[in-house]
Specification:
The complex is a heterodimer.
Chain A lengths: L1 H9 L2 H29 L9
Chain B lengths: L2 H23 L1 H4 L1 H8 L3 H13 L1 H15 L1 H20 L4 H11 L5 H10 L7 H27 L3 H22 L6 H9 L3 H8 L2 H11 L2 H18 L1 H7 L4 H21 L1 H14 L14 H27 L2 H22 L3 H4 L4 H11 L2 H12 L6 H20 L15 H4 L13
Classes of the chains: A mainly alpha, B mainly alpha.
């Protein structure tokens, strides 16, 4: 099992996998910031603008 | 192609199929305003149309799990994409509301793909990396609902027929790709072992294990919560915060729908896109042997992953209380931040579960996933009914946390209580009584 661990971590997919999930998490944060922007500014949708 | 290359290729294939399926599953909801307008639907009819997306999930997911174990993920996936794609195309040409409702009911069974993909990924990844692999698969797939809600109305406006037609064609293309390039497992031995373990007796045995039942309840309070929130939150924000929206200038029905939908998407995006991160943390718990909860098993090789699962349950329960508090204050930004963290906690819960389930039930991953993933969707039907039944719209979340989630946590603690090993075979009736040739636990289980 230890050998398998080393093998899978050295193979590179795991490292790229972590980069990928970091990007996904970034998208979630951006969407949340956009929602906050909408309710703080009244902009970002149809109507609003106050 | 190297084995690792193939492994990643199969993960991409599974995640793509799930993304497509999840988008089809919730595409009807994305066009609810257009459908309501075209057929003159009342609110009650719209609610039935929305909830119908969940109706067939419990039974069909269970059945699909058995089929995936029996015939392999690629064949099962291709057939699922084929028939849902065909019915999506048929729904584009529906002549009346009855035809639309029936065809979309069939399309909504696309949600069964979750079980197929989990089974597929389980057949390819090892125990020490499966948390991240399942997280990437499921998180990427789940965001199909949020993407659909955000993009489909912008791309197609009110023309839902074109959207259903194009999505159906895409699903058919993906079915062909899955059939051509999908490989059932990393070794023929693993595939063969799973195939011979997919009998009716195996199904009865797996779904009566206390570990499977506890994990099903945990998934009901996380994934069930997520899909229920997808359907509930736009209406909640419109009803509960309308004065605040109007003060901001969102006054027309369309403007209110857009702002409420955008806020509701905070939950969907966070609950989906943080899910892989939870799988990664599950792997970290395992590697560092973190076991913070004294009332849970600490000695089983897989125990650290279970401690992360329980941590997520606690986080979800706390955030449900905070979300109620935020709503009661009437402060919209506070509500959104609380919702983001609730989504965050939900993602921890869904991601942590599938770092455990396929490992504990490696002999029958499809059956276990079908049961846990299928029955948990019932939560998606029940919770919105509770939210809507209380006089104060904000208090429903705290009520669900108190009367449903806390008992689920107690059941989980009982099922995974301290002991030398996790008693995965503990349940209603023994494996000998049910007529199986061997138990679930093997000497190497959980290593």
């Amino acid at each position: 099992m230890n050998q398998a661990t080393e093998s899978s971590h050295n193979s590179g997919w795991y490292r790229y996998g972590i980069i990928f999930i970091a990007i996904e998490a970034g998208i979630a944060i951006l969407q949340t910031i956009f929602a906050l922007y909408m309710v703080l500014s009244g902009a970002g949708g149809i109507g609003g603008g106050h | 192609m190297t084995q690792n290359g193939t492994k990643v290729g199969q993960l991409v294939l599974a995640a793509s199929g799930f993304l497509m399926s999840f988008a089809m599953w919730f595409a009807t909801a994305a066009f609810s305003v257009a459908i309501m307008k075209e057929y003159g639907l009342e609110k009650a009819q719209l609610a039935i149309l929305a909830s119908s997306a969940m109706w067939l999930q419990p039974f069909f997911r269970q059945l699909t799990g058995v089929l995936a174990d029996r015939f392999g993920a690629p064949r099962t996936a291709a057939i699922a994409l084929l028939y849902t794609g065909l019915f999506s195309i048929l729904s584009a040409f529906s002549r009346n509301y009855t035809e639309l409702f029936i065809t979309r009911l069939v399309v909504a069974t696309a949600g069964i793909f979750f079980v197929i993909g989990i089974q597929h990924v389980t057949q390819w990844f090892e125990k020490n990396e499966i948390g991240l692999a399942q997280g990437i698969y499921a998180g990427t797939g789940n965001v199909g609902a949020g993407l659909g809600a955000l993009l489909l109305p912008r791309l197609y406006g009110l023309d839902y027929r074109s959207a259903f037609l194009h999505m159906g064609i895409l699903a058919l293309a993906l079915a062909v790709i899955y059939w051509r390039f999908g490989v059932a497992g990393i070794t023929a031995e693993r595939v063969a072992q799973t195939r011979t373990s997919a009998t009716a007796r195996d199904t009865v045995y797996v779904i009566t294990r206390f570990a499977a039942i506890a994990l099903m309840f945990q998934y009901a309070m996380t994934f069930g919560l997520e899909v229920g929130m997808n359907a509930w939150l736009p209406g909640y924000y419109r009803l509960a915060f309308q004065p605040q929206f109007e003060a901001l200038g969102y006054k027309s029905l369309e403007a209110l729908a857009i702002v409420a939908g955008s806020l509701a998407a905070v939950q969907s995006f966070n609950a989906s896109l943080w899910r892989p991160f939870s799988g990664f943390i599950s792997d970290l718990f395992l590697r560092n042997r973190w076991t913070p909860w004294p009332f849970l098993n600490r000695t089983d090789p897989i125990a650290p992953r279970l401690h992360w699962v329980f941590t997520s349950m606690l986080a979800v329960t706390i955030m449900m209380l905070v979300f109620t508090w935020a709503g009661l204050t009437g402060n919209l930004p506070f509500s959104i931040i609380a919702l983001a963290f609730l989504g965050f906690a939900t993602a921890f819960g869904t991601g942590s579960n599938f770092g455990v389930t396929p490992v504990l039930f490696r002999k029958n991953p499809g059956i276990a996933t079908g049961f846990i993933g299928g029955m948990a969707t019932i939560g998606g039907v029940i919770y919105p009914l509770i939210y809507g039944s209380v006089p104060n719209l904000h208090t429903g979340y705290a009520l669900v946390a108190a009367v449903i989630f806390i008992p689920f946590m107690l059941i989980f603690a009982l099922a995974f209580r301290p002991g030398k090993r996790i008693e995965v075979d503990s349940g209603l009736g023994s494996w000998q009584a049910i007529g199986l040739s061997s138990p679930l636990a093997e000497p190497s289980q959980g290593d």
